[in-house]
Known about the structure:
alpha+beta, Heat Shock Protein 90, two-stranded antiparallel sheet, 12 helices, 64% helix, elongated
Amino acid sequence: MQRILKERDRLLRRAVQAAGLTGSATTLACLLVPGGVDDDARMACVLLVTFLAAGQYLLGTTGALRWAVLTVLCGEAIILIVGFTSHPGAPLNLIEESVIGIVSTAPMCAVAPVLLTSPRRLLFLASCFVLTVTSVAVVTVDAPDRAVLLTLTVSMWLAFSLACWWIAQSVPRVMHRIAAIGRAHRAERHASELEAQRRQDARLLHDTVLATLTLLAHSGVGVSPVALQKQAGDDARLLRQLRLGGLPTPRRSGAYSLEPATVLTLGDTLDTVRQRFERLGLTVNWHGSGQVQVHSNVLDSFLLALSECLENVRRHSGVDHADVTITDDDTTVRAMVTDTGVGFDLGGVGTERLGVAESVVARLRDVGGNARLFSSPGAGTTVVLEVPK
C-alpha cells in the first residue's frame, strides 16, 4: 500500500510541474508583449514569474507545502500588480486581462494535485481557490470581460482539481487490481506446478518403490536375492534424497541418478533445500560458506533439522522470507536460521510439542551436534545449529 501511495504522489507532482511550468511560460510570453503592461509592472512581474516557476518546480519535486505557499503568493502578487498599477485610470487592456486570466488558472491551480492528499491540505486548497477568485474579482471591477475571467478562473480550478482528485482515487484502485491479477497468476502457476510435481511423484513411485514392493509381495519370484537387495538399497537412497528436498532425474524406467551416500558437499544439498522451500512460497536468503565436506549421516541430520526450522518459519512466523548463514571452522559446521516474524515465548511451549525438541535438538544430538533457540514475542526467532565435521 505504501508503494502505491508513493506512485500516486509522484504522478500528481509531475502534473504540478507540467501544468504549472506551462502556465508560467505562457504568462512570461504575455508580459513580454510590447506595450501590453506598464514597464515598471513588467519588471516586477517577470521577477515574480521566475519565483513562481521555481516554486512550481520544487513543489513538483518534493511536494512540500511551503512551495505551494510560495506559488500562490507569487501568483496573487502578479494579479494585484497587473490589476492595480498598469495604466492607472484606464480599463484593463487585452494583454493585462490575458495575464490575469492565465496566472489565475494554470500556474496557480497547478498546486491542486499535491493538496488533495490530506484534510489539512484540502483546507489550504480551498483557501487558495477563494483567495484567487476574490483577487480576480477585485482587480477586474471595470474590465469589460470580467465575467469571462471569473468564469474561466472558477471552471479551471474546479476542473483541474476534480481531474487530479479522480487520478488520486484511481491510481490505488488500479494498482490493487494489478496486484490481484498478479496474485491470481502466481496462484494458478503454483497450482500447475503442484499438479506437475504430483504427476512426477506418481511416476517416480511407480518406477521404483512400488515395483520393489510388488516383487516383495510375490516373494521375489524370478529375481535373485542379491538383485532384490540392491534394488531395495537404491530405493532407500532415493527416498533419502527426496526427504532432503532433492529432485532425482530419471535415466530410464526404474533407474534414477542419485547422490553418493558417503561424503557429500554441503553446497549442493543446500541448493535443493532452497529450491524446495521456494516452491512452497518461502524465500531463503543464504549467506556464508556452502562448499563444506560433511559425512552423509551428519549431513542428513543437519539438513533435516535445518528443513524443520525453515518449515516452522513458513508455518508460524507470519513472514515469507528467512535468512540462513552457514559458517564453519576446523571442527564444526554452523547454520543460523533467522526470521523477523511474530516470535514466541520459549517458556510457553508445552512439553507435548515435540517438533523442535525431537526434529531439531534431539536429531542433532544423535550425531554429536547441538541446537540453540532464541525468540521472544514480536522480535522474530533465531536458531543456531551445530554439527561436527
